[in-house]
Amino acid sequence: MLLELKTKDSHKFCGMQMLEWAETGISNLAGEIAMVFGLAMWATTFPRIRRKFFELFFYTHYLYIPLIIFYVFHVGFSYFCITLPGFYLFLVDRCLRFLQSQRKVRLVSARILPCKAVELNFSKCLGLRYNPTSIMFINLPGISKLQWHPFTVTSNNNTDPDRLSVLIKCEGSWTESLYQKLSQPIPLERLEVSVEGPYGPASIHFFRHDTLVMISGGSGITPFFSIIRELLFYASTRSCKTKQVLLITSFKKSVDLTMLDLLLPVSANYDITQLPLRIEAYVTREKEPIPDDQKLCQTVWFLPSATDAPVSASLGSNTWLWHGAIISASFFTFLLFFGILARYYVYPVDNNTSTRFSYTEKNALSMFFVCLSIAMTATAAFIWHEKQNAKKMMLIHSLDRPKPKGIPRPGQWLYNSRRDLESFPHQSLFQNTTVHYGERPDFKSKIHSSFQFSLFE
């Protein structure tokens, strides 16, 4: 009987400990709440849920915010400092991305392909540099204010110095809404867009090979646009090691072949004959080409707005230097705030033998000072860069330069595919392209055993 009473008391005591939010030391209840948020994030990572309910998977992972908060309440800010460096860098990056996403960028034009694909062309600062295969996140408030979608950058900063382009294939509800907005009979005069990025690889490794074999399917060809333009730039202006480039691509329908028209930059200053490029295109579900009148593209031009800005890096060209300055200055500011808190607020309470400063309040203030320090320094650096960038733009606009002729009016539709295809670069590209209808690629016959190749997925 005595043993049974002790067992009941122990269970009752354990239950009370599980629901205890301690003022000092470890808080069990905070740890349990953090574990619930972690389990909710883990439950949505199963393949069936992630693929069928991607938005549920995506937005559930924002629970990392309360997870971190309650984790700090559970173990204390002192123990959290073990993982603080990585989380600190994440907060700096997230703050800068948020600041960049708040400005509206200048959307110059959009090209609508008959294969239900859209190329968006943005104005770009001349100082913005990025490597091929970079990606950029795009938000269209007219479609969804919360959804951000990543797309591969198809332009190249060497061949397209003042323009940044992405190609979007209609594959879902968001892309379908964009296509319908741009395809309506009365064209839009302006489309509000926000971006993050571009983000890309730190180095370019495909220049090391004598022969490149690039394999793609459908819209997976988009990363190769920037690569081929980079190779074309080096072949036209510098010594290029690459001696042979083979692009093997497959499409479901022949109308998708119009995406190949975007391989070359808009500028005609580059000679495609300087690049040893050969294209093997396969159309798997059709056995004959479509008529030429179904291959025409449409281009819509948008009205400029005084509030729009060209796409630029959040901190300019020397981003790594600014990142180091923000991290150092924000951490020094945090130490200053934390020292003031400890000396004039925590110490007078702890010095009293009868009271103890609440760990929960101390942890909350510490997290608040971390976020405040990062937000203050990152915002100051971002605003300073924006002012310097605005001065440069005003200086450029103040120069008395003659306006180029033939600029289309905003909202004017141009059916310019036939004119582009008649140009010399596109003729050379057409001559180097072999289209196979009703076939699938035979890699054994196309790729010689002696090739050194790079495979991009």
Brief summary of the model shown:
The chain contains 14 helices and twelve strands.
Describe the structure.
The structure is a single chain. The chain is of the alpha/beta class and 457 residues long. Among the domains are: 1-75, no CATH class; 104-311, Translation factors (Elongation Factor Tu (Ef-tu), domain 3). 43% of the residues lie in helices and 15% in strands. It is built from 14 helices and twelve strands. The chain has helices at residues 2-18, 28-43, 47-52, 54-60, 64-75, 77-80, 84-101, 173-183, 222-237, 319-350, 359-398, 417-421, 424-431, 443-446; strands at 107-113, 117-123, 135-139, 149-152, 163-169, 194-199, 211-217, 244-251, 277-283, 298-301, 413-414, 433-437. The protein has a five-stranded antiparallel β-sheet, with helices on one face. A four-stranded parallel β-sheet has the order 7-8-9-12. Strand 1 and strand 2 (117-123) form a beta hairpin. Residues 398-422 and 449-457 have low confidence and may be disordered.
